[in-house]
Structures are given as structure tokens and as C-alpha cells.
Design goal:
The structure holds 3 protein chains of 3 kinds. Chain B is an all-alpha fold. Chain B is about 75% helix and about 0% strand. By secondary structure, chain C is mainly alpha-helical. Classes of the chains: A mainly alpha, B mainly alpha, C mainly alpha. Chains A and C meet through helix 3 of A and helix 9 of C. Chain C: It is a multi-pass membrane protein.
């Protein structure tokens, strides 16, 4: 095993650890925060930083091109779909009369 | 490290499941399911590397592409009560 | 390996917890969401069991189609589960307990978990599928050669089942073609822009990925069933974001109906062709007598194509009939 290989492995481990930390932070927030809009905020940490770092960590230990391509595609599509889903969700909740805490508004349903 | 990452993702999945069960509003549940889906994508990807079988990534890729559809569908239905209208539909409101 | 066992235990714990929650919750919207989680977890378990093709099917069907069809059914019925009176739930409990006891009793006869000389491991057919299929069929993905060639008959049956199910739903829900005049105000496009743009960007890739899964099934996980569902998911996403009418004018019902039958005909046609060439039904070797492997490749390609066409058409038709029905009622 070359030095570069070992270095990449260690780097990959570090990046993966950071990614999982973000995912866990987001999940804890999703579970603990008191209100829907705050939870959206926590969940998007998982989708952006968590997913991005984990995919990067896996990329660092990939050797074949097709695998790397798939990882990049997964990251690419997650980067598009997750924020869109969060956005549509938050907008729907707003349209339904939910308001973020601290902002006065009607709460119809 | 891969094993630890897998277990961390599983913990996060459990937390998301708890949110999906507890609610309280429909939006909380949709958010939890969507987040659970992202975590599943990551879990399958990491598990593929753990097993030394990167062809698992195809499955993660399917989820990354179409997990979104379920979210759009439930938003649509909870808002309009039917799928038919376009997203800028009958209520003059947004999704 | 304890690490793997830990993962398995955690996944099964999530599965059981989800199941209990589904049984407890009465709001059917929430139940539809939770069944999505159930499906995601099952896919993870299949992945851990190395059953990649099954996981792929679960992923494709569970992530998009099942949720959408559940929701479609909810739109036509009620969104709250009816309470079952206690007096009626006692016999149900007894039946469930008896069935469970019988299953536990029967499981005593199963070979021990992971044992090396279980019937599955020692049966000659395992050897044939796993070892000989490489030269007999020459397709790297053994699941595909079993599904499309060794067990081609069964798969034909499955395609016919899907076709029949689609016809049955069409008969029950109508063609989804009748809809009243709609009074949709001029669209307020700007508030929907994000969703529209992202959907537009995503749909071509979903369709492309469907094609990849269709034609890459010989080499990796995938095949006609998964590809069909993914392809249909792309069209359904279009219908959800841009409206049913737009989707219908792009992929009209009058195209889908013959298409669903075409897939079955392609599959059956390959069988008839091999009969004509002097072989037995679905004996692909006859398609290229000089080079059996080439014949197998051609046969599997055509048969998978038939499966893909039927599944795509059937899934889109199912969605159209649910969605169209909802419009008419409201």
C-alpha cells in the first residue's frame, strides 16, 4: 500500500466522520426542534452537508471510474431534489396557514 | 470507519422514523419521510462500499432520482385532494 | 461478523417499529408515509442480504409507485381508518395468533440459519444456475438468466398478471378519459417555478436511467420490471407537476393501451418464434442455431423489452385511471 493510498484512506475516514456527524446533527434537530420550519432547517443539514461529505468520503476511496461516476451522479441528483422537496414542503405549509414561530399569522388547520 | 458510518446513518434513520410517527402535522411526516429517503440513499451507498460491492450504487441512484416523486405526490394530494390539476392548479395557490 | 449483525438487527428493529406504528395510526395519510419508510427499510435489508435485484425492484416500486397509488386510492375513498369494534377484533386476534403459532411451529423444520448443507445449497439446480449458466447463457447477472431464460415461463406468467391487473383497474375505475370541464384559472407560474424547473431537469435523466436499467440488466442489477417502473415514474412526475392533461397529450391513453398488449405479444411472440424454429416454447438457442449464447442474448433482450413495455404502459395507465377518476368526482 502506497503512502498516497494510506493518506487518501485517512482523509476519506475523516470526511466520512464529518459527514455522519452532520447527518446525526440534522436527525437530532429533526427529532428535537419544536416546530415544523425549524425541523425543515435541520433536515436540510442532512441533505446538503451530510450527504455531500459522505459522498465525497466515498469518492476518496473509489478506484474505478464507473463507481466514481455513479457517486457524482447521486450527489448531483440529491443536490437538486432535496432542496426542491424542502422548498415545496415549506411553501405548502405556508400556504396552509402555518407560520414560522415568532411571526404572527393565521393558523387555519 | 465505514461500519461506524453505517451505524451512525441507522441512528439517524431511527430519529427520522420517530419524527414520522410522532408528527404532529402532515408536513412533519412528509419531511421525516423525505429525510429518511436521503438517509437510505447514503446508507445503501456506504453499505455497498462496506460489502465491497459498489454496484449497490445503482439502487442508491434510483432512490436519489425518484424519492422526490412521493413527496410531490403527497403534497399535491393533501393540497388538492386529487392528482389531476396542474401544480399551479385550481385554487390559484401553489403546491 | 458482529458489525453486520448489528446492522441487520437495527434494520429489523426499524422495520418492526414502523409496522407497529402503521397498525396504531388511524390517519391514512400518515400510514401511506410510513409504508414508504417500510419499503425503504426493506430495500436496505435486501441490500444487506446481497439480493441486489430484489432491492432494485423494491426501490423502484416502493419509492415512487406504491406511495402514489396508495395516495390515489385515498383520494377516492376516505383518509381515516374506520375503527373496528372490539368484539370483532378478538376473533381476528385469535386467527392471527393461531397463524403465527403455526408458522413458528413450522419453522422448526427449516434448516438452521446459514447452514452450508441446506437443500438450497445442495440441490443440483443451484449448481446449474450459478456455475453452468455462464457458458449456457453467457450473461454475467445470474438473476437475469434465471428470470428470463431458465424460468422464462414463470416470467411470462408475471407479465400476463401485470397486464391483467391493469385491465382490471381500467374496468373498475374507467379509462380515466372522461373528465368534466375544468375551471382552472390562469396559472400562477412564478410561485411554482422551482418545482417546475427541477422536474423538467430531472425527468430526462429518470427516463435515461430507465433505459440504462432496461438494457444493462444482463450485466448488473436491473431488467424490464425495474426499468418499466422507473420509466413510468418519470411520466408520473411530469403529470404531477405539469398536470394530467399535459401528460395525457404527451403520452395518450390510446397509445398506452395497445402498448401494454404489445409487450405481452413481444414476449409471447419470441416463444412462438422458437416454436416455429423447431424448439420448445422460449427456447432461445433456436434463435441462433450456430451460436446458442448469441441466441440466448437476443432472446433475453427481446423478452426483457417486452416486460419493460408492458410494465411501463400498465403503470402509467394505473396512474391515469386513479388521477382521472379523482378529477371527475370533485
Amino acid at each position: 500500500m502506497s503512502t498516497l493510498h494510506v493518506a487518501l484512506q485517512i482523509l476519506s475516514d475523516l470526511v466520512l466522520a464529518a459527514g455522519v456527524l452532520f447527518v446525526l446533527t440534522g436527525a437530532a434537530g429533526l427529532h428535537r426542534l419544536p416546530e415544523f420550519f425549524m425541523r425543515t432547517h435541520a433536515a436540510s443539514i442532512t441533505d446538503s452537508a451530510g450527504a455531500g461529505l459522505i459522498v465525497l468520503g466515498l469518492l476518496l476511496r473509489t478506484e474505478e471510474f464507473p463507481t466514481a461516476l455513479r457517486l457524482v451522479l447521486i450527489a448531483f441528483f440529491l443536490m437538486f431534489t432535496s432542496p426542491t422537496a424542502s422548498h415545496a414542503l415549506a411553501q405548502a405549509a405556508l400556504g396552509d396557514g402555518f407560520r414560522p414561530q415568532g411571526i404572527r399569522g393565521r393558523k387555519t388547520s | 470507519m465505514l461500519l461506524a458510518a453505517t451505524l451512525g446513518l441507522l441512528t439517524a434513520m431511527l430519529l427520522a422514523l420517530a419524527r414520522a410517527v410522532l408528527g404532529p402535522t402532515l408536513y412533519d411526516r412528509i419531511l421525516a419521510v423525505n429525510s429518511f429517503g436521503t438517509k437510505t440513499v447514503l446508507f445503501i451507498a456506504v453499505a455497498g462500499f462496506l460489502a465491497g460491492r459498489p454496484d449497490f450504487l445503482d439502487i442508491a441512484l434510483v432512490y436519489a432520482l425518484i424519492n422526490f416523486i412521493g413527496t410531490v405526490a403527497v403534497l399535491k394530494l393533501s393540497h388538492y385532494g386529487e392528482f389531476g390539476a396542474s401544480a399551479t392548479g385550481a385554487h390559484g395557490d401553489d403546491l | 461478523m458482529t458489525g453486520w449483525m448489528l446492522i441487520d438487527i437495527a434494520l429489523f428493529a426499524i422495520l418492526v417499529a414502523t409496522g407497529i406504528a402503521i397498525a396504531q395510526i388511524r390517519q391514512l395519510f400518515a400510514v401511506a408515509m410510513l409504508s414508504g419508510i417500510f419499503s425503504l427499510t426493506s430495500a436496505c435489508i435486501f441490500v444487506m442480504q446481497d439480493a441486489v435485484d430484489v432491492a432494485f425492484t423494491e426501490a423502484a416500486v416502493g419509492a415512487g409507485m406504491t406511495t402514489v397509488l396508495f395516495l390515489g386510492a385515498l383520494a377516492l375513498t376516505r383518509t381515516r381508518e374506520k375503527e373496528t369494534p372490539r368484539t370483532r377484533s378478538l376473533p381476528a386476534l385469535l386467527v392471527a395468533a393461531a397463524t403465527g403459532a403455526a408458522l413458528v411451529y413450522a419453522s422448526q423444520d427449516l434448516p438452521a440459519f446459514g447452514i452450508a448443507d441446506s437443500p438450497v445449497q445442495t440441490h443440483p439446480v443451484t449448481e446449474r444456475y450459478l456455475v453452468t449458466s455462464a457458458e449456457e447463457i453467457g450473461v454475467p447477472n445470474v438473476v437475469t438468466s434465471v428470470l428470463a431464460s431458465y424460468r422464462g415461463y414463470d416470467t411470462f406468467g408475471e407479465v400476463v398478471v401485470i397486464f391483467t391487473a391493469a385491465i382490471a383497474v381500467l374496468m373498475l375505475l374507467g379509462h380515466g378519459a372522461t373528465r368534466g370541464v375544468e375551471e382552472v384559472p390562469p396559472p400562477m407560474r412564478d410561485r411554482q417555478r422551482v418545482l417546475r424547473v427541477v422536474a423538467k431537469l430531472l425527468i430526462p435523466y429518470i427516463l435515461l436511467f430507465g433505459l440504462y436499467v432496461q438494457f444493462h440488466g444482463d450485466y448488473g442489477p436491473g431488467g424490464g420490471f425495474q426499468a418499466g417502473v422507473i420509466f413510468a415514474a418519470g411520466v408520473i412526475l411530469y403529470a404531477l407537476v405539469f398536470g394530467l392533461d399535459a401528460a395525457r397529450s404527451g403520452v395518450p391513453m390510446r397509445v398506452l393501451r395497445p402498448l401494454a398488449a404489445t409487450g405481452v405479444v413481444v414476449y409471447g411472440g419470441v416463444g412462438v418464434a422458437t416454436l416455429m424454429l423447431g424448439g420448445s416454447f422460449l427456447d432461445y438457442n433456436r434463435l441462433a442455431p450456430d451460436d446458442p449464447a448469441a441466441g440466448q442474448h437476443l432472446g433475453i433482450l427481446l423478452v426483457e423489452l417486452g416486460v419493460g413495455i408492458t410494465v411501463t404502459a400498465a403503470m402509467i395507465m394505473l396512474f391515469y385511471s386513479f388521477a382521472g377518476r379523482g378529477v371527475r368526482r370533485s
